[in-house]
Amino acid sequence: MLDKILKFTGKGIYCPQADIYIDPWKAVDKAVITHGHSDHAHYGSKYYLAQMLTVPILKHRLGSKINVKGIEYNEPLDINGVKISLHPAGHIIGSAQIRVEYKGEVAVVSGDYKLEDDGISTPFEPVKCNIFVSESTFGLPIYKWKTQKEISDEINSWWRGNEKNGKASVLMGYVLGKSQRLLFNLDASIGKIFVHGAVQNINEIFIKAGVKLPDAEKVTSSNRNDYHGSMILTPSFVLGSPWLKRFEPYSIANASGWMAVRGVKRRMAIDRGFVVSDHADWNGLNTAIKETGAEKIYITHGFTDVFVKWLREQGYDAHILKTEFEGEIEEPPKNDLINES
Hints:
Elements: E1 7-9, E2 12-15, E3 20-22, E4 30-32, E5 47-51, H1 55-62, E6 68-71, E7 77-79, E8 82-88, E9 96-102, E10 105-109, E11 131-136, H2 148-164, E12 168-172, H3 178-184, E13 193-195, H4 197-208, E14 217-218, E15 231-234, E16 250-255, H5 264-268, E17 272-274, H6 282-292, E18 296-302, H7 304-313, E19 317-320, H8 334-340
Parallel strand pairs: 3-4, 4-5, 5-6, 10-11, 11-18, 12-15, 12-16, 13-14, 13-15, 16-17, 18-19
Antiparallel strand pairs: 1-2, 2-3, 7-8, 8-9, 9-10
């Protein structure tokens, strides 16, 4: 049991009074979804509630015929005496923290979040509460991110150098969220921008929903001369595939929080690794928790043992909550993390 207002079940985090689940990993009658990543949004529920910009993503991933309602940030709903509202999480476009209030007690389920303003997602807003349910994907002190500007400058400098050498720049990142963030912060004056079809599909969904994204062309040509000096945004599953041959000569990089771990870049056999994560780093996690003012903290996924121990040492009433949330894709082997910690 989380507390009087929320309970933990085999299907997910549950509010009995409102009869709703938050990011359930099994089919339920009513589900409130924090964002569209597959570990938080599962198929089969009878009814979904999400932030407006997450609705088209849910329809794309779970089926166009799902029963889903979209609401704006800070738009209050009353469900059987329970006040529910969604608040910016800053994780990806449309991501939300779920605020649940009943009889004076407030719980916030954050889903995934980051504090750094990436320029395209609605920035994270701390929400005062009694109970805060947080992730800890990067809940170790070794994870401390550079600023958005520093990250963007590094990527654009790499691209500029490749362009001068007549090479294409292939930058891998997660299709939903990461790719749009990377695209938004590219310097289009350097050259043309291309995207993998999977990235283009998500881009088109957001553009139709009113999100402004820089121009990018879907990769269709097999003529390598079309790509010299250009930037190609793609999922990481293309690594080692024949699909990449059309870009030769090229330099290839990966954008992930796990690039902060020694050995990951070498194991992937890539040229560059950019530390770019849509999750809060160590300082971000601690800041977010402090700003909620919560008396009880529940940690759902990531380095839960280490982070809960740390929070208790800081005087928090902190607990581990076992879920099926995964955090950032492409987690490094545990041996790499042991060597880093």
